[in-house]
Structure formats: C-alpha cells, structure tokens
Amino acid sequence: MRLAQGGVCAICREAPAVHVDHDHTSGEVRGMLCFPCNAATGHLRDDPRVVRAAAAYLERARRRADRAWLVELLDGDGASLLERAFADALLRHQNAT
C-alpha cells in the first residue's frame, strides 16, 4: 500500500506514509497517512463535514491575514508605487471573490 502511494501520505502527499488508516466504524482500511494527517482525521472525528468546515475556517483566516498585509502595504510609507498598485489590485480582486 505504501509503495502504491509512492511512499507518501495519502492526504498531504508530502510526509512519509507511516500509519495504516482505517474507518473506525467498519474497520475498512482507507490508506496510509503520515502522523499529523492521521491524528487530524481522528481529531476531526473522521467527518468530512467537519473537515470541510475546518478548511473553510483556515481559508477565511488566511484571506483576512493576506488582506491585512495588503492594507498595511498600502498604508505604509516605504511601499513603492508599483507595490501599492499591486496591493490595491489584489484587494479589489479579493473583495470581488
């Protein structure tokens, strides 16, 4: 199974696959995961709805952080005209999506 996954985690595709993951209700083996991804699925109760809600939460937080950085760049004295134009365009794009 590890070889079929290229030796890496079935979720993040980065870290080594070291844990056999299984459905705790049926016992069915799903794949091999790295330690953090295996722990995360358990902490998120193996519930895809909770996983999607966690992803949406993290994406919103990242957008807020990105927006804060751009606003700071726009307000900063050291930003070049090009940097300010880029930050302004990114903010307009983010606000439209």
Structure description:
There is one protein chain. The protein has 97 residues and is mostly helical. The protein folds into two domains: 1-46, His-Me finger endonuclease fold, CATH 3.40.1800; 47-97. It has three helices and two strands, in the order ββααα. The chain has a two-stranded antiparallel ribbon with strand order 1-2. Helix 2 packs antiparallel against helix 3 (81-96). The longest helix has 28 residues, at 48-75. It is elongated and about 60 Å long.
Overall number of structural domains: 2
Number of helical regions: 3
| Cα-based radius of gyration, to the nearest Å | 20 Å
Backbone structural class:
mainly alpha
Shape: elongated
Strands of the biggest beta sheet: in what spatial order?
A: 1-2
Question: Runs with pLDDT <50, length 5+?
Answer: none
Helix content range of the residues, please?
40-55%
Largest sheet, described in full? 2 strands, antiparallel
Terminal CA distance reads: 40 Å
Name the helix and strand elements from N-terminus to C-terminus, one letter apiece: EEHHH
Counted beta strands: 2
Mean pLDDT across all amino acids:
88
Strand content: 5-15%
SSE layout and pairing:
Elements: E1 19-22, E2 29-33, H1 35-43, H2 48-75, H3 81-96
Helix pairs in contact: 2-3
